Amino acid sequence: MKSDDSPMSKAHAAPRCTAKSKRTGERCKGPAVKGWTVCRFHGARGGHGPGKANPAYRHGMRTREWQEMRKAINDLVRMEKEIEDLISD
After folding, report:
1. pLDDT tens profile 19-71
2. What are the boundaries of the region Disordered (predicted)?
3. DSSP element (H, E) containing 82
């Protein structure tokens, strides 16, 4: 039996996790999750999603939508001031 026939040959050839140990300074030797640079123990696919389902969600004033809205409003106010300066000159 050739080594290429073994299903474990793909597992051994998988890219390795890039996380480093604080204690020893050595890299993790676990296989990285597909599409990630770290293994499942070091944060791949971890964490909560955005929005009200997140336990840290308080009032929504710092969500991405609100930040984009504030930026748009600030841009409009800035443009209004520029137009006002052009008219007054």
Report:
1. 998 899 999 999 998 888 999 899 888 778 778 888 888 888 888 899 999 99
2. 1-30
3. helix 64-88
